[in-house]
Structure of Oxidoreductase:
Amino acid sequence: MSRHVRHVIAAAILLLGVMIALPARAAVVGGFDFDRAQVSVTGLQVPWGFAFLPDGSALVTERNTGRVMQVRPGQTPVAVATISGVSASGESGLLGIAVSPTYAQDQWVYVYFTTASDNRLARFRLSAPSTQNVLLSGIPRATVHDGGRIAFGPDGMLYLATGDAGTTSNAQNMSSPAGKILRMNPDGSIPASNPVAGSRVYSLGHRNVQGLAWDAQGRMYATEFGQNTTDEINQIVAGGNYGWPTCEGTCNNPSFRNPIITWTTAEASPSGLAFANNTLFAAALRGTRLWAVSLNGSGGSAGASAQFQGQYGRLRAVAVGPDGWLWVGTSNRDGRGTPVAADDRIIRVPPAGVTPSPSPSPSPSPSPSPSPSPSPSPSPSPSPSPSPQPGGPCSATGTVQTQWGNGYVVQPVTVTNTGTSALSGWRVTFTLPAGHTLSGSWNATLTVSGQTVTATNQNYNGNLAPNASTTFGFQVTRPTGNTATVSGYTCGSP
């Protein structure tokens, strides 16, 4: 055998070994294509919570600065509010944020933050951020275990997760709001339907909850930091006791509810939580990964896999955006990470089947200042929108993702260029059932004529190469009990 042939064979064997050793592609997990993840926002300072406005932009809290930033993919974050009275040290500071489900009508933004004396819940309007309406104060504070996640549930109630503030007995003390998940009306008052009359306590026995989410059946879940051995995700029920400080992880006590899944503290330290496509996504701080937990029919775990392991560092926040993408925030400047120059960042993961446009690099120059409050709802057009024009074939499909008694959200509506040449703009029309009215939208401009709705692209998502896709979404108000149905999607160039 010649030396040349031996070299060729050796090279082939080496190449085969490299190919075998390469890790498998993450492919699609929980309905999202992690191989197409994009860094969409950079330069944040310890982002803690996400909440989305009707225009599709996100409000992001910065824990240590007390600022609320408005972010859009590929653009420089803009400070739109600074919360007065924030005292940041250790794990405390400006934490959770939520936008009113009826933001188009009331413009309320809710925040949870630490002061020099307590943790408190307040709401304000972007048009007057210095005017705070404190809804709940006196929640024990500390430099550790402040909890902090706030979210509106599918029942329209506001939920607040608190930590034990370093005093473990708080978690079982019904007179203390610490170590609990609290449930209240949007104005902070106590709902008559709470498990204990006259109390905001919805569940107890928590050490430090930083993530809340609901599945498609309305079941509630929460992440839980363990002390030394076990981190958890729990399915939360009204009046449930989750065992802290008597035990962590699975408890051999019928008085306590067991988690649906556990990890070691090195694998997780789970913070933010989101749900999509029958999967819970938990952002892990110490674990430096995103856990994807598939659910079975009863809401238990059907298995878990880790994404982004070690790729972006500590992960704090995760949410499904109105664009249909999964948004993930890093926490590498919180004093426990190893930041890179771009930190902290927001990474976006597209839904499976959506071909992202070229990744928008965050702009080095400031983007135009946003309006403090978007217009409430689309104004009706005076005449029916013209039918789609030929010249740029495209398709549109929509999915009802979330629904409640008198409303529902359709997202994503996926617009795909099915032609052989690039599109420089698109227009989608569809029909709402009688009595259903549009109450919000994002990533498109919507106009209404009767029950016909016309959506046109924004300036940042109109250009589509052949086979490329983009998404938008909208919210609808309906008579209670009516079926959530949207029909007749058609797509064309404007």
Observations:
- The chain has two domains: 34-349, 394-492.
- Residues 7-25, 363-391 have pLDDT under 50 and may be disordered.
